[in-house]
Known about the structure:
Blueprint: H1 3-14, H2 18-39, H3 43-60, H4 69-74
Helix pairs in contact: 1-2, 2-3
Protein name: Sigma-70
Organism: human gut metagenome
InterPro entries: HTH_Sigma70_ECF-like, RNA_pol_sigma_r2
Amino acid sequence: MNAQELSALIKQAQTGDTEGYAQLYRAVYRPVYKIARMAMKSEDAAVEAVRLTVLDSFAALPAARLTSSPQFIEW
């Protein structure tokens, strides 16, 4: 997925669109999981870390002032 597509999904999710959230989740799951897996001792812990990360970031997403996909990834 390129930066423009990711930015469109972020904007879609920020409006509360459930399909936007679903697509954004699918787009970020693997990279977030890879980072979590390197940091955690078990796969279960990595999956839980991804779950918590996604829940927290998606809950804050509507109020976030992100203007580009790199900002979202860093955030």
